[in-house]
Amino acid sequence: MVVPGRPDAFGQTDSDVRFEWGPTGAANLAADARCLVVVDVLSFTTSVTVCVSRGMTVFPYRWGEADAADFAHAHRAKLAVRRRDVSVEHPWSLSPASLSAAPVTPRLVLPSPNGSTIASSAQSTGATVVAASLRNAGAVARWLMAQRFGTPGRPVAIIASGERWPDDSLRPALEDGLGAGAVLHRLGAAGCTLSTEATAMAATFAATTDVEAALRSCGTAYRLVQAGYGGDVDVAAVLECDEAVPVLTEGAFSPA
Fold it and tell me: What class is the 17-50+118-245 domain?
């Protein structure tokens, strides 16, 4: 069936609030969106929320790029290391738990394979880029409405980053769907016009009676716990405890 008002079948252009998965979904919606909200609950956007709340500025960067250290040096920033490489000299990593306790550094480069890569790529689209997690979903929704994003002429796209299968294909991840759904649910309740895709994800969040339990029992959380990083799940699982709204400005996330 052809739906009137949607000339682009996958662009969700008949609605002011849209939803998609992963880097390809972000690229498809970014061309027509005035704001792109990136959700990577375990762990990039939770880490960004924690850092910004502590007064740190965070530069997203593509995962695995050999010149990350040069980029950090050029921006007078510290470079986050892999979780297993954390040390006294390098206490910053993609671990929200570690970042909650690490010394505050004014500027941090934080690569990640999913959320950071999407945010870094989105800089060239001209859209406002925001980092959302379960911790700040309510604050992000309120800020979007205050800025009149999600209204006619100012569409917003919520992107669940997802994870990766061993063959590098996208694995839609429950935790990111719930984080995106938390923002979408609040926008829908405020009267914004949600696409069918966005409505379905908002309904998924609303129907999840215990979001924290769902997060703790999802596959990504199990993997982190088994690797010894259960503290990251603890930090990410707290719903709407943070008022920080990280907005990408001049290449770095800082408070709105």
Answer: alpha beta
